Amino acid sequence: MWALDVLGALDAGILLLDRHCRVLYWNGWMEQASTLTAREILGHDLFDALPNLRESRLHIAVRDTLATGAPGVLSHTLNPMLFPLRLPDGRRMVHNVVIRPLPAHAHATGGEARCLIQVTDVTASVNRERVLREQRDARYRAIVDTAPDAIVTTDTRGMVQWMNGAATRQFDYRPEELIGQSVTVLLGDDAPDWIAMADHSGPDGSGRLDAVTQPVELTGRRRDRSHIDLELSMARWESEGRSFITGILRDITERRRTREELRASALAMRQLAEQTKATLDALPAFIAVLDRSGHIVSVNRAWAEAGPETIFLGQGCIVGDDYLDHCGKGQTADPRADDVMEGLRRLLSGGGPPVSAEYVTGNQHWFRCLAAPMPAGPFGGTVLMHIDVTEIKSMEAALRKLVSQKSTLLREVNHRVKNSLQLVSSLLTLQTLSLPDEAVRVHFQDARSRIEAIARVHNRLYQADQFQTIEFGTYLNELCEDLARASGGESMCDIAVRSEVIDLPIDHAAPLGLIANELITNAVKHRGDGPARVTVTFRREADDLFLTVSDRGPGLPSNFDIRKSRSLGMRLISSLAGQIRASVDIDTTPQGTTFRIELPMPDAGPMLEASSAEEIDG
Q1: Burial (CB count <10 Å: 0-12, 13-18, 19+), residue 80
Q2: What is the largest CA-CA distance in the chain?
Q3: pTM for the full model?
Q4: 252 with 302, same domain?
Q5: pLDDT classification of 544: cutoffs 50, 70, 90
């Protein structure tokens, strides 16, 4: 818990976010500056609690740090007031924001990514800079006294004689507390000797500030014993016969931290580059990087070690070669490479799209050439890749052959099923002719009609390129024409069909065709006096299909229930409707009966499979 006490005591805002941007820590400095207590914000998404920060530069930097582990620094110069913070006197606080990733092994749970946000009040620094601009014409002492860096003057013994306001603020000592004290009070234990450093400046006794020593970095010490990173520049000078040493102690805490972060980032970038190169070397593709002029600047291991059996465009080129010249002239010239070379030229000139082309070599090896611009790279240009797709081409040819064989087989199966069903229908017709009982002949005729309805489905499948779906509107027209002819033509029945063009899977088309066959047959059979007048419609509304069969016969009883009917045809309609999840609605009047069959539009899965097969075949 002492670590939390330290964070809470810092003169800076400290926030800890998890990978979901939920606030895990909110120190007292942030409570005072934002008026949001830790109890109000802990556990909440920072950007929900402060919605004005969503999609701000801070939000983007936090996401980048959580995703990549790269730190971020948001200075007040470009982002003066990201958080809604105020000083004790009510003025808006100008602040800097630093976002740092926390390593996974340091987390308490799960090893999840987290980030630490530090908010530093720079209002005083901003105000100080403003004062400096306003007093730029003031005399030397006024300038020095208001300088942004701490300036301390000592005598040759190292005793403090004067310090400017920046030193007072930086070390938290009042001038009267330090004047007469040793300057070592402000320096850490590792600081070099103040007097020895000043002696290197070589005073000339002219009574002016002498040449400043080369800056050195050291650790300072504040009043509260906390440490501060400093850059010290010193000079020895004389005035009125006395020697003095003036030191400028610049706070470089942020610079050193940034430098360390940049060093870590550079190391991470080198590691990433090494990992990328190892990944490219592990790929079987032949990869090269070209600069804007078309010269090769880098190749992967597969390219460098390509054997004579590959013969891809540009094989044998090494780093430094002009790839376009190598592939377009001499023995390496290949007319099949013209399109690839032209695409590369346009791409390198900055006005062409990425290149994607296939070509075949003399030894019947197929390659796919891919090239894409690489404007962010150090050389510009493009990355070029040749992929051996010979095996893929062989598999595609074999797959096309299998699809063709499957198509032929399915067509033959549907043809034979149709022939077999027609044979059964013919046998039933012959059997019907030999039956003396009219009632029995009617049953045989109904059975033959049902078989022919199914045979008609397979006939459509045999004649079409689709083997899993049929266009139901055309099928319905043919069914009605056949039923009209079988019923004695226009003198016995008049069937009007209005249908939309709708493809149905066979497992829906066959049951729906049988339902239509039963309803039309019943309408003709029970037409009453005069010819039957039947209207058949098939349409789609949104995600539902509607098949309607209307007649002008004597109608059905008002209490008719298809589920309780003992008629084989009605039981068959009810069973088939349940099979395709359809509902049956019956509207009966003395002037006729209307059957409405409503079912959901079948899923497109089978049709998509058929389309994919056609694309492979093509």
Answers
A1: middle
A2: 150
A3: 0.38
A4: no
A5: very high
Picking from 334, 368, 384, the residue at the C-terminal end of a domain is 384
CATH code (residue 480): 3.30.565.10
| Four-point Cα dihedral 68, 71, 73, 78, nearest 10 | -10
pLDDT recorded at residue 522: 81
- Quick: pLDDT tens for 290-309: 888 889 988 999 888 888 77
Domain of residue 573 covers 466-600
Q: What average pLDDT does the segment 198-219 reach?
A: 58
* Tokens 């019947």 -> residue: 364
Burial (CB < 10 A; 0-12, 13-18, 19+), residue 234, is: buried
Q: Which residue has the tokens 């010490």?
A: 221
Residues 233 and 293 in one domain: no
Overall average pLDDT of the 426-443 stretch: 69
What are 94-151's pLDDT values in tens digits?
Answer: 999 999 998 765 445 566 788 999 999 988 888 887 777 566 545 566 667 777 889 9
The answer to whether residue 583 scores a pLDDT higher than 50 is yes
Q: Span 214-233, mean pLDDT?
A: 87
Q: CB of 425 within 8 A of CB of 452?
A: yes
Residue of 558, 453, 460, 565 whose CA lies nearest to 515: 453
At residue 549, the 3 state secondary structure works out as: strand
Same domain, residue pair 247 and 332: no
Q: Rounded distance, CA 177 to CA 229, Å?
A: 22
Reported as a pLDDT band with limits 50, 70 and 90, residue 414 is: low
Q: Is 165 exposed, middle or buried (0-12, 13-18, 19+ CB in 10 A)?
A: middle
User: Is the confidence at residue 21, as pLDDT, over 50?
Assistant: yes
Render pLDDT for 166-187 as a digit per residue (tens, 0 to 9). 888 889 998 888 899 888 888 8
Q: Could you tell me if 479 and 572 lie in one domain?
A: yes
Q: Which of the listed residues 128, 157, 180 is the one where a domain comes to its end?
A: 128
Q: Taking a C-beta distance cutoff of 8 angstroms, is the pair 298, 288 a contact? A: yes
Q: For residue 29, what is the enclosing H or E element?
A: helix 28-34
How would you classify the pairing of strands 366-373 and 242-251?
Answer: unpaired
Asked if residue 483 belongs to a domain, the reply is yes
DSSP conformation class of 503: E
Indicate whether 509 and 573 sit together in one domain.
yes
Residues 3 and 120 in one domain: yes
Total domain count, the chain: 4
Q: DSSP character for 352?
A: S
530 and 576 housed in the same domain: yes
Looking at residue 117, what is its pLDDT? 93
Query: 104 CB contacts (<8 Å, ≥6 apart)?
Result: 111, 112, 113
Residue 400 within a domain: no
Please state the rounded mean pLDDT for residues 376-402: 80
Distance, CA of 487 to CA of 494 (rounded, Å): 10
State the Cα–Cα distance between residues 502 and 480, nearest whole angstrom: 17
Does residue 392 lie in a domain region?
no
Q: Around Cβ 143, how many Cβ atoms within 10 Å?
A: 14
- Answer yes or no: do 229 and 318 share one domain: no
Amino acid, single-letter form, for residue 163: M
For residues 286 and 107, which has the higher predicted lDDT (pLDDT)? 286
Share the mean pLDDT of the chain.
79
Q: Quick one: CA dihedral 46, 50, 54, 58, positive or negative?
A: negative
What CATH number should be reported for the domain holding residue 52? Answer: 3.30.450.20
* 454 in any annotated domain: no
Strands of the 355-360 sheet, one edge to the other: 296-299, 286-290, 382-388, 366-373, 355-360
Q: How far apart are the first and last CA of the chain?
A: 71
